[in-house]
Amino acid sequence: MVILVEIYTILAVSLDLLAGQLGILSVAQAAFYGLGAYTSALLVTKVGASFLMGVFAGMVVAAAMSLIVSFPSLRLHDDYFVIATFGFQIILFSVFNNWMSLTNGPMGIPGIPQPTILGRVIRTHSQFLVLASLFVALAYFVVWRLSTSPFGRVLRAIREDEVLAQSVGKNTLRFKVVAFAVSAALAASAGSLYAHYITFIDPTSFTAMESILIISMVIIGGTGGRWGPAIGAAVLVTLPEALRFVGLPNSVAANLRQIFYGTLLVIMMMFRPRGIAGRYGFNR
Amino acid sequence: METLRCEKLWKTFEGTYALADSTMEFSSNGVTAIMGPNGAGKTTLLNVLTGFIRPDSGRCYLNSQDITGLPPYRIARLGMARTFQNLRLIQEVTVLENVMLARPNQRGERLFPALLRFGVADDESRNLEAAMRLLHLARLEEKASTNAGELSYGQQKILTLACCLATEARVLLLDEPVAGVDPIMTAEILRLLGRLRDMGKLVIFAEHDVAAVRQAADLVIVMDEGKVIAEGPPAEVLGRREIIEAYLA
Q: Which of B153, B160, B154 has the alpha carbon at shortest distance from B95?
């Protein structure tokens, strides 16, 4: 459970680089999450690569694939970009689900080994907790470094006024493309972690609903602040478990949960659009 | 010496001519003012010169390099910066941050230097120094850590000018630099324009205010319906009765 919170924290942090700094939303976070999971799972099970090589390859693949979406669509207005990422998400899910020879389709990839780092197998829960925490720290480090540098200054300038940023000589497309690639790579690292933690992956973990869950975490936690993504991830991962204690039958509880999320999001947007710990609202 | 030239520029917006066969040449011998009634094509001209709007036909040259159709950021990097009629500043960050943003070739704007911080601190302190020098020039030093949105309107206008200078531009295009500014700040801005000319910058500004043009400009170009209808020293052009009556009254 704590490890799942950590995995989702990485995903929320990766999205916050876009939502909090650049002011754009991506509905493709789960696609990059899946790319990381599949890349490292396949490399480790089929080619016998090491865990860290798998993670690295997943990040590179996700960053490279992100260019396919970002180069054409980031020239457009933000709204079209959101739609393009949604399209990418749907396409990648179909690929995971239908490319039988590679991904094994809906049956998924079983038997992903536990991570081995420098000859040590990460076996126990607490060892994995340390590993996941290191990944969270990496994601936080990357986003913190970028947002406190001149790079981040330009991202925020693009959020506030892209025309101004261009007029003072900033190649705004380049900044957006790079930020999107970094965000994709971080999401992929969470995917590798997930694959080696659960030791089994199938396409249902990387659906558009999952992307929307990540967006909800960022909105509820708040964008642009330090703890927002972690709080959002903690709330939305633990909430379903908490609701389980209410003692409703499973069929009702699942539907009720969706209604509860929806209501929570609406309430947040109405009364605290900047989220629990966010610095900026979405009310541009 | 800087030169800026446009040849036979045409631009229409839904059937009305914003630019009609405009040919002009500017050089850094003095400050040029572009005048004309609303809709004469002044802002369109600035937008075309800085790459924000593509002309239907015609070409622009900066120091004899063809810049027609280049994206705005490339033109800015070639040394031509502009201000906007509606102030464009980042209101929620400090005056200093606004100027720092505009500094060119920042190391820390590239991904790996930003992540690993190799040489970024030195670069930042150099940019900080340059930014403070500009704020000194604009007499905004004391406001350095104030949010840009809290400045007076006139101070915000002068800050946009400082941002332009921060890009190390040698050619400055200013869209209505003193419109809506109180007399004291107007004098301050016009003083700054004179200093920029003395520093060898090519300064062009679009303006309605006849008094300001008389005071700051060495050359006046009057536009109407996308065409140049008069050109010359302010004393001469602004003395012509037909110009005053038809376009500036």
A: B160
pLDDT digits (tens, 9 = 90+) for A181-213: 999 999 999 999 999 998 888 888 898 888 988
Among chain B residues, the shortest Cα distance to A159 is held by B90
What sign does the CA torsion over B201, B204, B209, B215 have?
positive
**pTM for this model (two decimals):** 0.88
Contact B104 A151 (CB under 8 A): no
Structure confidence by residue, pLDDT tens digits, A1-53 = 788 899 999 999 999 999 888 888 899 999 999 999 999 999 888 888 888 88
CB contacts under 8 A, A 167-186 vs B, are 167-172, 175, 178, 182
Other Cβ atoms closer than 10 A to B71: 14
Q: Which residues of A touch B163 (CB under 8 A)?
A: 168
**C-beta of residue A188 within 8 angstroms of C-beta of residue A36:** yes
Contact A166, B76 (CB under 8 A): yes
Which candidate in B73, B112, B172 is best for mutational testing of the A interface (most A CBs within 10 A)? B73
Q: Are A88 and A26 in contact (CB under 8 A)?
A: no
Strands B3-13 and A116-117: unpaired
Contact B90 A145 (CB under 8 A): no
Q: pLDDT by residue (tens digit) across B27-75?
A: 877 899 998 888 888 899 999 999 999 999 989 999 988 999 899 999 9
Pairs of CB atoms within 8 A across A/B: 90
Distance of residue A153 Cα from the nearest chain B Cα, in angstroms: 7
Q: DSSP for A80-95?
A: HHHHHHHHHHHHHHHH
Contact state of B115 with A146 under an 8 Å Cβ cutoff? yes
Q: Which residues of B touch A (CB under 8 A)?
A: 50, 52, 71-73, 76-77, 81-82, 84, 88-93, 97, 100-102, 104, 106-111, 113-115, 117, 120, 124, 127, 163-164, 166-167
Complex ipTM, two decimals?
A: 0.89
Does residue A118 come out as left (phi exceeding 0), alpha (psi in the -120 to 50 range) or beta?
left
- Residue ranges of the alpha helices (H) in chain A? 2-16, 29-42, 51-73, 78-98, 100-103, 125-147, 150-160, 162-167, 172-198, 208-221, 228-244, 250-271
Residues of chain B under the 50 pLDDT cut: none
